[in-house]
Structures are given as C-alpha cells and as structure tokens.
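pinging the channel bc i need a second pair of eyes. not urgent but kinda urgent?? the chain im working w is below, pasted from the shared doc
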Amino acid sequence: MKKYFSLRGGLLSVAMLAFALGTTSLQAADLRLATTTSTENSGLLSQLLPKFEARHGIKVRVVAVGTGAALKLGENGDADVVLVHAREAEDAFVAAGFGVNRRDVMYNDFVIVAPASDKAGVRGMKDLSAALTKIREAKVPFISRGDDSGTHKMEIKLWAQAGGTPQGTHYFSIGQSMGNTLSFASEKQGYTLTDRATHAAMRTKTNLEIVVEGDPRLLNPYGIIAVNPARHRHVNAVAAMKLIDWFVSPEGRHEIAAFKPQGEQLFFLSEQSAHLAPHPLSNIK
C-alpha cells in the first residue's frame, strides 16, 4: 500500500491550530462550523449559509476537513457546531459528552468512479462487494483518501466486507480531500470511492465516470451536532442551536432541496429532521 503526503498529519494539525487561533478575534455572534470537504466542494454551503446569515445576522466561519478532523475540532472546543457524515463516529462523539442535539439533516450516496476504460470491468454492477473484489483482483489503481474522513471510514468498512483492503503498489492512500483525491484518481487513471455531490461538482475536471452505484450500503447520511457547552463553556451555543434549528426548519430544508447544480439534485432531505421538536438548548439566551 503506497502512502503519500506523509506530512499530512502535521499539516492538518497546523490547519486545525490556525482555525482555532483565527477564531479568537471573532465577534461574539460569529459561529465556527467544522464540516466535511464534501459539503464545501459540492458548493452546497455557498448556497445555504448566506441565507442563514441574512436571516439571523450571524457570520459562519467554515473549516472544511475530513469528518474525523471536524469531530476533533469539536472535541477540543475549537468549533461550535459540526456537520459530518459518519454515524458511528457521530454517536461516539455525543456519547462521550462532546456533542448535543444531533439531528439528521440530509443524505446522498457514495459511488465508485473510474476512467471510461473501466479496466476492472465493474461498470453497472450492483453488488458492491463483488465489484470491489474485481477491482482488487484486477490490480488496477485504487485511490483512497486515507484521511479519517467519513468517506475514508466508509471505504475501509466496505473493503472489509469485500475481503480486505488491496495490498501492493496499486493502492494509493494519499491523505487528501475528496476533490484532491478525484484529481489524483484522474491522473492515475484509477478508481476511487466518492460522494456523488463532489463527483458531480468535479466531473468536467476529472472525466471520471460512475461505474458502481445503487448498493444500499452506499447510503451517505449527514448529521449536524452542537458542541456541548457544558464541556466547553466558551463555545457559541446560542448560534450553534440556531444553525441546527435552521437546517431542519422548512426554510433550511427548502434550500437543501433547491440545491440542484446543472439541474441535478445532489442532497436529499432526511425525513426524521422534519418531525423532531426543538432541543431544549435551543432556548439558551
């Protein structure tokens, strides 16, 4: 297994530290949102956040990293709210007392993309484990994010179900964002697992095509969680609760559903979020 960008842990730590230090001079109303590169790369936040900011007069400061890094920012009190997509990690974050008021927001799905040549011959397969087995046995390049993101966590889980992660020089673990991973896969003429939204945003830049989709295991739900003010007294709990309530409000849900670049809907509403009463912490003054 090839490892690239061996300094990624140090670079990520620097980025996280810079985000934390950069928030020390924020106005009281500013909100620190730690989220995934997929929500940023897709363009979704560029549509949603200005509407929230105009409604509530709260400036949202965004750092886009992998889910693992976003949750770490919340754990350290260096974010006020997190928007991520790795349910087991989210539940552990809440269970450990770092987060409160987790709400289902939206979902899309993961897909396997590859060059048009599809040398592994998996195009159109619906059984994901069978497709990954063919990719592994064909020894074609497979590019892994390798960054503890929600996508990377899903990839590792899916490889385990398919008999194990590929070994050898054709498996590249690069420790990069989804956008950079897609670019690297295009350069190497390889396969990768991606969320559908980021692939759609970069399709014309990479010329990678969806070859495997539709397996129920590829469901990709997103949740939003406030950092627990009982754990970190300095967090902006008021603004965090307002953002969460806005995401699951009729207005927020409308904006998510209306996000259709090139006419393609990339995120779908989680039904659960429409039926939950406001969290008690929403009433913090």
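so The first strand starts at residue 2 and ends at 3. and Confidence is low (pLDDT under 50) at residues 3-27, 273-285. — does that match what u expected or am i reading it wrong
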